[in-house]
Amino acid sequence: MKKRIVTGFTLLFLVLIIGLIDSPFLMWLFFGLIYFIAFKESMKLYSIKDKKLPFYALALWFIALIYPYGDDLFILAGVAYAGAVAYNKEVTWKKFYPFIYPTAGMLFILTLYREYGVESLFWLLAVVALSDVGAFAVGKSIGKTKFCETSPNKTMEGVVGGIAVATIGGAMLSLSVIDLFSAFIISFAVSVASIFGDLYESKLKREAGVKDSGDILPGHGGVLDRIDGYLFGAVVMLILLRGLV
Question: Is the pTM of this model over 0.90?
C-alpha cells in the first residue's frame, strides 16, 4: 500500500506539472512514452510476438506529431492493415489488436488535447479518478450485488456510486468550459466508459493468466493498469464534445 500511495502521488505530480507547462510537443512526447510502454504490454496480453510491431507503433505516433487528427490516423491504420490482410494470407487480424487497444485511445487523448486544450484532459482525469474512488468507497461500504461475471470484485452498488460521484464531480469541475447539461451528459458517459475500459483490461489479463499488465509502476503494476479507463473514456469524451459543444 505504501508503494502504491507513493507511486500514485508521484504520477499525479508529474501529470500536473506537464499539464501546467502545457506544451504541445512535451504533451506529445509524454503521451508517446506512455503509448509505447502500453503497446508493448498489450502485445504480451494478446500473446503476440513480433519485433516489428513496436516500430510500426512508433512510426504511427511520429506521424501524429505532424498530422493534427489522431483519430483519423487510427482509421487509416485500419484501412492499411485491411489491405495487408487482403494481400497476404499470412497476415492475421490478431496483430492489429494492439492498434485498436491501446492505440485508438491514445490517439483520441492526443486529439482531445489538441482540440479542447489541457482543461479537457484535467476533466477526463477527474471523471475517471472519481469513478474509481467512488466505486471503491461505495462498494466497500455497502456493496453486495455482483456487477458482472467477468469482474467478481465489482459490485453494482459500487459501480452506480462511482458513476454518480464522477458525474456530479465532473460536471461541477467543467462548468467553466461548457454548459451544465452538456457537462452532466459527458461526465456520465465518460464515467460509464471508464468502467468498461477497466473491465476490458481485466478480461485481457485473465485470458493471459496474469495479475497485472506489467511491473513498471511499483504498487500499481503496468501502464495499462493505470490508463485502462482513460483509453475508453477519451474516445467517448472527444466524440460527445464534438457533437454537443
Answer: yes
